[in-house]
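Example for tutorial group B:
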């Protein structure tokens, strides 16, 4: 369960944190915690719209299933639109599915369970 919790936390950090200089590094690191297919979907671009917006995550809470193959993850995401200074914080809820690939747990599926309008 500890490995699943660590992997889920890293997944959220890599997939939902976007800062001016982080996209390329996170794209590379993401391949360690998610399937190649999911990484290709989430990091399809060569780079991000640097200078347009930034997102950060905090208060990540992982709730593993009894089987240890799935979990729910709840976290807060802060959005900052750099041009206007607009800030927004949302609470997010995801269901993650894991598989063992080459001896390590990786996220193979992600489902957004956040109700419209937030949690």
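The residue assignment follows.
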């Amino acid at each position: 369960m500890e490995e699943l919790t660590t992997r889920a936390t890293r997944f959220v950090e890599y997939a939902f944190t976007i800062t001016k200089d982080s996209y390329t590094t996170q794209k590379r690191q993401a391949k360690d915690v998610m399937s190649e297919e999911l990484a290709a979907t989430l990091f399809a671009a060569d780079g991000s719209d640097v200078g347009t917006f930034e997102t950060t995550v905090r208060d990540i809470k992982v709730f593993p299933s009894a089987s240890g193959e799935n979990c729910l993850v709840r976290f807060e995401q802060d959005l900052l639109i750099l041009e206007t200074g607009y800030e927004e914080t949302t609470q997010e809820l995801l269901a993650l599915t894991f598989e063992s690939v080459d001896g390590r747990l990786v996220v193979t599926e992600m489902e957004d369970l956040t109700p419209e309008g937030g949690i």
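The helical segments are 2-16, 23-30, 36-42. Compare this with the pattern of hydrophobic and polar residues in the output above.
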